[in-house]
Design brief:
alpha+beta; four-stranded antiparallel sheet; manganese (chains A, B); 29% helix; homodimer; 9 helices; F420-0_gamma-glut_ligase-dom (chains A, B); 353 residues; five-stranded mixed sheet
Chain lengths: 353, 353
């Protein structure tokens, strides 16, 4: 690897809707060369593309309401909330405070939204830079993001063109011959971070150029590929929101949950029983099903019922499904509970693999 | 802002326990100058400090068990788990897969732990570089971390010396006179990311130098300041873990939860009632207390009891506390539920501020 340089592009000035951002960049940086990575702050891309929303310039409920409406329109789903602050997933798949809607570095009568399609913005800028100056650069559109677990923000790539966004070391050997099995470096995010070191927040330096970075060119790529979503996302909700969701699941747990065919994980039923202070007998047990007989004081049947629901919530917390019939039997005054794996999950043991 | 350069330090070679890492760096980079930021991969710091654990070189259960023991010893608490993969918070406060315990770029008979105190490691390296070569540099100790919501890893700072870890723009004006109220840039993380662009994973280039970055010198600083923990951490648990915790709370919800004096948020009780399909009457309501009379079929009292617990879980999901007495009253065959704010929380309205 050789040295790289990160150079601020000064003199771009204010960017207004309809501006030819590529022309502003090539005029301010006539030294652009093939293989450079041009990192552009999303805010100037948004301004050039007219992604602006008018709002009352004076602080107050009307300004707040206009801002809330803008955030709502950019939000696909809320991830976490604290007081008036919302962390949301945007329509792009990005997880951001206030959906990336920003009041800084813009006239007080305007809000800036993120570009509608930052990868397309990056591709268009790249093509236009090539048309204007003949140089073949990669383009990264950056934005500032907070992170769980760590104080402070860093810049990351929300759009990219002409560069493979991830450098994948998986399957390759290290210097000791060990196979690297997890390392995928988000190089476009590291480029955005490096560029931020020369851009600053309060100065009008919205563009920086990284020279000397040997990247893999890509006609496709795009920062969209960095969005981790669906079952791969282990942090789809804030802790308070997920905990409330667990409580809601307990509140709405139906009597008749479909039971699957998977084998019950060793000890899981016992673990759930130990969580709840109530009397219960095991009537029968196989690898896939356990039938329980809840006990309790026959003079306090409502309490027995509440404890049955506690027990079923404990089973659910352990990843188990249960059904309850309250039909009293000869020997089972409060009915029986049947426990199995949730339908659609092969087995507890396999889930752990 | 002016240009900065990021330069790999080549020729350091293998680092062994007891090695004088500062000497290896100053020998390989005799061009080090005042104001440079030396970014050192944590792995070579750990190797020099002897933070190594022997383990059986052959794949198999013994190697896995030794690795698990090493992870356990580095773990303060488990944040999330998926199959055999654990994301944990280490004793340093860092949230990392496998507690940062690493098998790559080391002999197969050894595991590498993170440095015990990476800020102290950075400070010691900085002092020793100054003693050896007379130059005053900042030192960042970096490690590779995954991120929620985004594919791929980036390098971040786990230790730092001689540099303020965060650049704080809060309270300052932007070019439009808006006050920047949230921006705190984690500059040491951006420096680690920039350095990673020239270090690579598979090559033996564990050190890079950033020159030209105008940072705030700090005698204290330290990357420890970047750890966000406690109530500020909105993602203390994985979604599955927090949801299971909510179910466990429902399972263990006592009858007699202490009620606080805060005002109930408008509509919160109604919202919770709407979640559960059961009959319930409001006996009395004030700003701080609502008393409910659960209904139900008197011939199926256990079911009424289960529905009472469902309702209390729904109230808890809405952030409300409740007590239940199953003492039947004249008009209340299944007792009464009293709802309030949890003790210690001033009011629902204030919580939203």
């Amino acid at each position: 690897m050789s040295e790289l340089t990160v150079r601020p592009v000064t003199g771009i000035g204010d960017v207004t809707p309809g501006a030819d951002l590529a022309a502003l960049i090539t005029d301010a940086a006539p030294w652009l060369a093939d293989g450079d990575v041009v990192v552009v702050t999303s805010k100037v891309v948004s301004k050039a593309e007219g992604r602006l929303v008018p709002l009352p310039p004076e602080p107050g409920p009307e300004r707040d309401a206009a801002r809330d409406r803008a955030i709502d329109s950019e939000t696909a789903r809320v991830v976490a909330r604290r007081g008036p602050m919302r962390i949301v997933q945007t329509h792009h798949g990005l997880v951001l405070a206030a959906a990336g809607v920003d009041e800084s570095n813009v006239d007080r009568s305007l809000l800036v939204l993120l570009p509608a399609d930052p990868d397309a913005s990056a591709a268009a800028l790249r093509a236009r830079i090539r048309a204007l100056s003949g140089v073949d650069v990669a383009v990264v559109v950056s934005d500032t993001m907070g992170r769980p677990w760590r104080i402070g923000q860093t810049d990351v790539a929300i759009g990219a063109a002409g560069i493979e966004p991830v450098r994948d070391y998986r399957g390759g050997p290290d210097a000791y011959g060990n196979i690297l099995d997890v390392t995928q470096v988000a190089v476009v995010d590291e480029l955005a971070a490096a560029a931020d070191l020369v851009k600053g927040k309060a100065e009008q330096v919205p563009v920086a150029v990284v020279r000397g970075f040997r990247f893999t060119a890509s006609a496709e790529g795009g920062a969209r590929a960095l969005v981790r979503a669906g079952p791969e996302d282990m942090f789809a909700l804030g802790t308070a929101e997920a905990r409330a969701d667990g409580l809601r699941r307990a509140a709405t747990l139906p009597d008749d949950v479909p039971l699957g065919d998977g084998d019950l994980p060793q000890g899981a039923v016992e673990h759930a029983l130990s969580m709840v202070d109530t009397t219960v007998d095991v009537l029968s047990a196989s690898s896939r099903r356990v039938t329980l007989r809840p006990g309790g004081d026959p003079r306090r049947p409502a309490r027995a019922g509440a404890d049955i629901h506690r027990l079923r919530a404990a089973l659910a917390a352990a990843g188990l499904a249960s059904t309850w019939t309250d039909e009293p039997g000869a020997d089972a005054p409060f009915g029986t509970i049947t426990v199995g794996m949730p339908a659609g999950i092969a087995s507890g043991a396999e889930r752990r693999q």
